[in-house]
Each structure stands twice: as C-alpha cells, then as structure tokens.
Amino acid sequence: MTMSQTPRSRPAILRVSCAVVLAATLAACGDGSDDPLAAKPYDATGQIAYSTADGSRRVDPDKPLKITARGDGNKITDVTATDATGRYLRGELAADGREWHSTAPLAAGAHYTVRVSTEDEDGRPGRQTVGFDTAPADANLRVRFGPDAGVYGVGQPVTAELSRPVRDAAARAVVEGALHVTSHPAVNGAWHWVDSRTLHYRPRDFWPADARIEVTSTLQGTRVEGGLYGGPAAPLTLRTGDRVVAVTDAGAHQLTLTRNGHRVRTVPVTTGKPGFATRNGIKVVLGKEPFVRMRSSTIGIDVGSHDSYDLPVHWATRVTWSGEYVHAAPWSVGSQGSANVSHGCTGMSTDNAHWFYDQVRPGDVVEVVGSEGRGMEPFGNGFGDWNLSWSEWLRGSALAAKGRPGGHDGTARQPGDAARLAPRT
C-alpha cells in the first residue's frame, strides 16, 4: 500500500499492532485531494490483525491498539479512532510522537475507522485512513428492560434484568453507565442494584404525570470484565398517565384517592386485624383481576382453623406478590370505617371496590399509614422502591459510589401533594 511521495520527502513509516501478531495487507485511501501525501502512515505489512478460522482478519478487543512510528525523524501528530456509531476510542500520544496507544477498551464485534496524521523529519505531513473489525465476544451480557411498553402510573420503576450476574464494583459501573433513561420532562433519577442481575431505576420523586420515558443501552460490544462483553438490548418507551395516589389510613379506617393533587373520593375501609396487620408504606399497583378466589392456605393458615377462609373476591387490585389486594369485601361492610378485621388486605364495599378498580392502573401509588403492621419491603414483594430515602437509593448505585450518579435535571414536587405522598427524602 505504498503511497505517492515527492522526491524530497522521507516517508514516516508506522506500525499498527494488537496482541496477536500476523501480517495483514490493509487497503489504503487518501485524503480526497489531488496532492500527493508527503508521508506514509502505514507500512504495507503493518501488524494489525490476526486471522480467524474462517480467514477473516479481526483485532483482539481484549488488547490495546498501538500505533508506532518507525524511522529517524518521523512522528505521529494525531490519531482519531471511532467505531461505526461514531463513538471515539480514547488514546494517548507519547510526548515524542513516536507512539500512540488506546486507553479505553475496544468494543467486541465492532468496526473501527482509524485516521492517522504524520510528519516526516522535514515537517511534511501525511495522512491515511484505515478500517478494521474486532473479534466478537465469546460471552455476552444481555439486558432486558421492563415493564412492557405502555402507560403506567407515576410510581412505576424501570427495571433491567441481566442475563448473568455482575458482582464486581467496577464492572457494575460499566454496566450502569451504559443503561440510559431519559424522561420528558426531565427528572433527577438513578439506577439501584437490587441484586447481581437486577437493577431498578426511579426518580428522586415520583415520575411527572404525562411523561415520556425512553430507556436505551449502549452496552453492546463494551467490555464489562474479563472476557464478558455487553450484548444487545431492545429499547423501551413508557408513558405515565395522571398522578394517581391512594392513601389508606388504617387508624381512621378510610382510603382517600387523589388525581393530580385533587381529592377524588374518600371511602370507608377495613384493613388487617391484629396478627395480620397490613404493611405500612408505599406500594405500587402490580395488576388488576376482576375475580380472584382467595384461600387462606396460600398464606400458611391451616384449613379448618379459626382464621381459615375460601372466598370468591371481586374487583381485586394487587399491590404485593404475597397476596395483598385492595378488593371488594361485602362480608365486612359493617366493620368498614370503624374496625380492622381483614387478614391483611384493604377491604371495601363492592361498589367502592369497582370504582377503585376503574380508577387505577399498574404503576399507580397505594400507600398505607397508621397500621400496626411491619414496613413494606423495598424489593422482592412488589415495587417497594419508594420506601428508601434518596440517599439510601443512591447507595445502591455503582456510579454514585464513584461520585457520579446517573440522572438529569431535578423535578420539583407537584403542588397539592401532602408530604406523606412522596418518597422519603
């Protein structure tokens, strides 16, 4: 790949190398002008690639890319390396201009374009562009975002499920930094590692009403750790509806539902009796079922015992995976508004339960206050994410541990919201 040169110039010969060294002839291209280049940035037998079993030439992404000038007086003046998406590969040029090397990992299974500018001992410039591919990753870390696309309440967290566990703090920072959540209007939010394979994303406060939330990943091809590279992830778009918040005051035996800060209705209810007290705290609607058959045996109550039951239940709104619902309880109407007699659910009349069922959607907020029950778990029994304060939430972020949590501009709390209707701060 010898380039044209003037008789007075001495070529600046470079070598491009990676870990596995086999000679490869690279196609050369000029700068688009009619003027001959005064220096040649690549040797025709420059060591840049290795041959795979199928005969293709691909660079090992686990090794740094190095470009070296050969010949007295010749030096590199600039190197620009980009992948097919336009992302730059960071690198460092030696003070004497004799060598450039990448300082960031190469992506696996990616195509790179490298542009090198050189200068010979007489100061005459040279420039050349070359492309190469990196070998695909032996192992991929795939990501699945949730929930499914659709419209949700303002309490719905975004989830990311990984195809394999990631435990190392540095590797978690790589993953977290490649998972992007953008909302319109903007919010101040962050990811939280629930466990080694699960992340949740929430704002500091609930999502704004009528927001658009876009979730994307730039992890594909990125080295996570060792031989593990990021795999593909389908993007996700969510929307929020009205800001619907239902607060059950177990001590006052009533539930109040607000929409966009305005009270819609207060209805009498009954919650868990002693020994079965309803969980305090913020929960999120998980789903709705017009009919459920509830059996006490599913929560460990012996059949035939004093507390056993087997009931047909209508208009059931689920708020925990363990079986806590807001539902119709016509058998306890006489206690609704005055006593707590349930086994942990929030019961109301059939008409009120049907009304509540029609008012809410998955992701809407349901909070219980004034109960003698334990607090709602942050994870594992539904979406209790909002029961963590913002500082507690950030402690679960690998990027926050490095002093750079993800997020955007802050969003002020909406007017008309009582303090208890917001996550702890």
From TrEMBL:
It comes from the Bacteria. Residues 1-23 form the signal peptide. Residues 244-369 form the L,D-TPase catalytic domain. Keywords: Acyltransferase, Cell membrane, Cell shape, Cell wall biogenesis/degradation, Lipoprotein, Membrane, Palmitate, Peptidoglycan synthesis, Signal, Transferase. One of its GO terms (molecular function) is acyltransferase activity. The keyword Ribonucleoprotein does not apply. Pathway: Glycan biosynthesis; Cell wall biogenesis; peptidoglycan biosynthesis. Pfam families: Big_10, YkuD. Residues 401-425 are annotated as: Disordered. One of its GO terms (biological process) is regulation of cell shape. PROSITE patterns: LD_TPASE. The active site is at 327 (proton donor/acceptor), 345 (nucleophile). InterPro entries: Big_10, LD-transpeptidase, LD_TPept_cat_dom, Transpep_catalytic_dom. GO terms for cellular component: extracellular region. CDD domains: YkuD_like (cd16913). This is Lipoprotein. It comes from Streptantibioticus cattleyicolor (strain ATCC 35852 / DSM 46488 / JCM 4925 / NBRC 14057 / NRRL 8057) (Streptomyces cattleya).
